[in-house]
């Protein structure tokens, strides 16, 4: 027969983000193997796009010698891509698609 303390300790770890008996957190990830591969690919493509926009801005800076606004546009694209990637990761974590242990 279970005691009340054991039943309460088991119930504490059943909710997302609550501390368990040992002090570690319980995270649930609802991502299957196929979706995990797709999400990993999305993150990698987004990071490559951010780095590409950064190097494009460097090339425009070198070629234009400070005249024109192509550098500003390329850096604005990089900022927007970075913000979109961070928003995607936060929403994915909130929805349970990814867990802190990785994608």
Which features would summarize this protein structure in a list?
elongated, 103 residues, mainly alpha, 3 helices
How would you summarize this macromolecular structure in one to three sentences?
The chain is mainly α and 103 residues long. The chain is built from three helices and no strands. Helix 2 packs antiparallel against helix 3 (70-95).
Helix run count: 3
Element-level helix/strand string: HHH
For the sheet with most strands, the description reads: none
Number of domains: 2
Percent of residues in helices comes to 55-70%
What does this structure look like?
The structure is a single chain. This protein is mainly alpha-helical. The protein has 2 domains: 28 residues, no CATH class; 73 residues. The protein contains 3 helices and no strands. α2 packs antiparallel against α3. The longest helix is centred in the middle third of the chain and has 32 residues. The protein is elongated. 2% of the residues are buried. About 16% of the residues have low confidence.
Topology:
Blueprint: H1 4-12, H2 33-64, H3 70-95
């Amino acid at each position: 027969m279970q005691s009340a303390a054991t039943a309460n300790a088991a119930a504490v770890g059943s909710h997302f983000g609550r501390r368990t008996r040992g002090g570690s957190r319980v995270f649930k990830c609802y991502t299957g193997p196929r979706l995990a591969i797709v999400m990993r690919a999305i993150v990698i493509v987004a990071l490559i796009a951010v780095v590409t926009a950064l190097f494009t801005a460097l090339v425009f800076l070198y070629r234009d010698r400070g005249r024109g606004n192509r550098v500003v546009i390329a850096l604005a694209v990089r900022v927007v891509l970075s913000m979109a990637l961070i928003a995607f990761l936060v929403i994915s974590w909130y929805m349970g698609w990814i867990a802190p242990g990785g994608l």
